[in-house]
Task: structure prediction
Amino acid sequence: MSGAPSLLLVLAVGVLYSCGFYLMLQRSLMRAVFGILLLGHAANVSLMLTDRAITLPPLLGGPEGVLSDPLPQAMALTAIVITFGVTTFLLALAYRVWLGDGNDEVPDDLEDRRIGRLQEPEDSA
Amino acid sequence: MNLLLAVPFLVPLLGAALTLPMRRAPRTQQVVSALTLAIVVAAAAALVRRTADGDVITSQAGGWPAPLGITIAVDPLSALLLLVSSVVLLVVLLYAIGQDIAGLSRAMPMVFHPIYLVLTAGVCLSFIAGDLFNLFVGFEIMLTASYALITQAPTRARVRASMIYTMVSLTSSILFLTGIALVYALTGTVNLADIAVKLGDAPPPLRMVLALLFLVVFGIKAAIVPMHFWLPDSYPVAITRISAIFAALLTKVAVYAIIRTQTLLFSRDDVSGVLLWMAIATMIVGILGALVQDDINRIMSFALVSHIGFMLFGLGVGTVAGLAGAIVYLVHHIVVQASLFLVNGLIRQFVGHTSLRAIRGLMAVSPVLALLFFLPAMSLAGLPPMSGFVAKAALFTAGADAGGWLLYTGIAAGVATSLLTLMAIFRIWVRGFWGEPLEDMIEARDQLRSQGMSGGRLLMTSSTAAMVAIGLALAAAAGPLTDFAFTAAEDLLGGGAYIESVLTGGES
Result:
């Protein structure tokens, strides 16, 4: 069908997802925020990919009167607004963490470390 | 357009808009918030009455017919959860108001009230949404409000915790969006009833992938093992009113979404094996985590993770009786978790923290607190006269009736989890409530006695007591509750009523 999305877009979605998840697994909060950004893009592009006539204009229609589906575009728009807002909030949080601790690394979980060190129940001590 | 259906969603948003500019008039703000939630409770009660016979009420926003318009649909399950959630939201709000009147909280009321009402709107929209994208929007409204609420009275620990919480929730939201894209590509619609019909023609392996994707999406939000790590790190750190409402509602909304999608959309695909294994892992891993913690709030958070497993078990059984058990458990757990976290808040208010290492002899210092803790804790463990026993008995009977080795393993895991829950509660009881009270706790009591009982403190204690009393009332009303849950479960597994009502316009 004319106006179908190209293979390049499909590959781009895959790359975006893998890079996003890779960045999210980093200990630096900033990198994790960038990971979230990439994941958001990946989800939005995959929403666009659901349309088989993505390259045609919406509403007015293309050469043969075929037009692209406006619904995925509306959904992507909503999703963009949400991810934009939450990412801004995340950046503010990361800034607060940096202000408080002077770094933006994810710290070790102290409680888990304590439990890992438990040799015997504390009650018996 | 049936207005009653829109009330649980629109009225809280209106209330939020009204309370936002009221920073100079805290009393008016409190009254408006409480009134708003009272209206939602009334609307939810009316909806429960109207769906009691298994009817599904639908409404098409904007008047467009079903697959095109935005559908709002309330079946018995939605109505029941709307009622329980709005009651819990109202009681926790009263607790928060009491705390603000007593001047005991560092949360900013002018920020708290509007966001709390927005959270209410998000929770209600998730329950009544008739299409997948609206369900997503409902989740996002709820979660965005929760991101802001978890940072109330910010400390370093809270900012860290909210960072973890926001990251994890956002990741699952993005996966949710991907799921919606895949479903839309496959069926060309986002209307739940329409998807349910059109997925019938889809290739079974694709359907299976979608079923598992949605299980992961909602599993992250419901904190199902192995996707639970974020919950015990973020919930206990927030202030009491927030952790109470998060523990009671947010994970349960995700459980509702799992029940809705798995029964309506993916009823043809059998994921019950996966569900049962996840249920067993969730029960055991969660409660083992609870046993090694030292902080009452952290113990309760792990117990929360553990008991999500019971609801999954009910869904995994796959029969009407199993699903009805899961619904009763859902209701019981919402109320009990809210009571326990409110009591923990009272303990934190009294002693200054909730670490068992520095609490002794609470029973000698405050018998009321001990009683308020004891009743919901026994209900959580599932001791006979309480609602926890009713719910667990319903689940185990359903499992045993259906038969099969995996179900028997699940029942065994459930019984073990109940016993271990009892053990975790006895640890709290023996270390925190028995023994000689510490000196600073006696001082705290004497100081409190000399001040006398202020109105704010009285409201805090009485709203906690009200929550505990609702838990007891659930046990007393077990008969009607179980009947209603059976009606809801029959509707869900029959599937026909929901789809028919949405696609043909229903009787509204």
In short: The CA atoms of residues 56 and 68 of chain A lie 5 Å apart. The interface with chain B takes residues 24, 29, 32, 36, 39-40, 42-44, 46-47, 49-50, 71-72, 75, 78-79, 82-83, 85-86, 89-90, 93-94, 96-97, 100-101, 106-107, 109, 111, 115, 118, 122-123 of chain A (CB under 8 Å). The two ends of chain A are 75 Å apart (CA to CA).
